[in-house]
Amino acid sequence: MEAIAAAASVAGLLALVGQSIAGVRKLSDFYLDVSTASKTAHHLLRDVNALLKVLYDIQELAEGIPDGFDDLQIALLRIQLEDCSNHVQRWILEAVENYPTSTSGTKAYLRKIKIGMNMKKIEGIRQEMEWDRQALTLSLAVLG
């Protein structure tokens, strides 16, 4: 029974990391198209790519975990991945809400102004991304 739970734990870990990777890549695609506040967008994309690298590293590590391996550190990593996945889903919703759907015209211009006014929100996302990246990196270091 424990072997089944451990295998489910590793499978769950892989599912969570896959979900987080997909979400972070989607977030990256949104912000690649943002042409306003290029310095802020550049910093945000750098943070997105750093988090994405850690998630890929976790995926690679998790794929190498043998069936039946169960550990407190795996449980902690799973919790951190759940938190990260929840953050990513919220960040995507915020990106969609503020994403300029057209590249020209008054509507696009007003959306770009809205993005510029939401710099505090973007800085908050960047800070959360950094926290997630640090926590996941620490867990990866302990497991790896």
Overall mean pLDDT stands at: 77
- Residues in β-strands, percent: under 5%
Q: From N to C, what is the helix and strand string?
A: HHHHH
Shape call? elongated
Q: Structural class given helices, strands, pairing?
A: mainly alpha
Assembly of the depicted chains = single chain
Low-confidence spans: pLDDT under 50, at least 5 residues? none
The rounded Rg comes to: 17 Å
Helix content: over 70%
How far is the N terminus from the C terminus?
A: 26 Å
- The tally of helices reads 5
What is the count of β-strands? 0
What's the main sheet like? none
Structure report:
It contains 5 helices and no strands. It is mainly alpha-helical. The longest helix is centred in the first third of the chain and has 31 residues, at 2-32. The model has no long low-confidence stretch (mean pLDDT 77). The radius of gyration is 17 Å and the shape is elongated. The chain has helices spanning 2-32, 38-63, 72-98, 106-117, 119-143. Helix 1 (2-32) packs antiparallel against helix 2, helix 1 (2-32) packs parallel to helix 3 (72-98) and helix 2 runs parallel beside helix 5 (119-143).
From the structure above, extract its key features.
single chain, 144 residues, mainly alpha, 5 helices, elongated
Q: SSE layout and pairings?
A:
Blueprint: H1 2-32, H2 38-63, H3 72-98, H4 106-117, H5 119-143
Give a concise summary.
With 144 residues, this protein is mainly α. Helix 1 (2-32) runs antiparallel to helix 2, helix 1 (2-32) runs parallel beside helix 3 (72-98) and helix 2 packs parallel to helix 5 (119-143).
